[in-house]
Write a structure and sequence with these properties.
Blueprint: H1 11-14, H2 19-22, H3 33-37, H4 42-46, H5 58-63, E1 76-77, E2 82-83
Antiparallel strand pairs: 1-2
């Protein structure tokens, strides 16, 4: 590689790569599956955990995270200092 990447189909814009994405029979990119799945050499030594999903709404999803967890007050009462689940 000469260090130049396609402006739309490059590893940085498409990251993270899910295991399902890496295992597709079609691979229409100028970089290898190994480069996409293991972009840093130390990942080969320590092991790799693949994400379940790729990017959501590109940069918007990265910057505006949504938590669907219940509020902490459902589990803990600050005034009384008591765990609500007991």
């Amino acid at each position: 590689m000469d260090g130049k990447q396609d402006k739309q189909k490059n590893m940085l814009k498409l990251a993270p790569f899910t295991l399902q994405h890496l295992m597709q029979s079609e691979w229409d990119y100028k970089f290898t599956r190994k480069q996409a799945g293991y972009p840093a050499p130390w990942l080969n030594e320590l092991g790799k955990v693949f994400p379940y999903v790729g990017r959501i709404d590109n940069v918007y999803g990265d910057r505006n995270l949504v938590c669907s967890c219940p509020p902490v007050s459902d589990f803990f009462n600050y005034e009384e200092g008591v765990d609500n689940e007991k």
